[in-house]
Amino acid sequence: QVQLVESGGGLVQPGGSLRLSCAASGSIFRIYDMGWYRQAPGKQRELVAVITSGGSTNYAESVKGRFTISRDNADNWVYLQMNILKPEDTAVYYCNAHLARYAVGPITNYWGQGTQVTVSS
Q1: pLDDT > 90: percent of the chain
Q2: Phi, psi at 43, each rounded to 5°
Q3: How does the average pLDDT of the chain come out, rounded?
Q4: Which residues pair with 20 in a beta bridge?
Q5: Nearest-angstrom CA–CA distance, 8 and 93
Q6: pLDDT higher than threshold 80 for residue 75
Q7: Eight-class DSSP state of 17
């Protein structure tokens, strides 16, 4: 009933850029926080960036100054602009949303299927 679908991943050289997109669809009453996480092989999933419904943002220290998260509240989209990419940014990137499917709640986490980002020369 609720689906998050990511797009925009791929192979890029160090110093290059990619723009990830995520669309939330289905029966949704209200979306609260939306964010991006990533998981490299053999490592724990980590938060990359989060944005609230009011537009407040937070970033992991490793991506500050390079990545920008934004959202389109009207259409339930969230984006991640990634600049000056480094090999250590290589990971599967996952879209996440905290949302209520109906009035009052509950607020539930939903995840996309992930999109691969590979940074290599």
Answers
A1: 92
A2: -120, 160
A3: 95
A4: 80
A5: 10
A6: no
A7: -
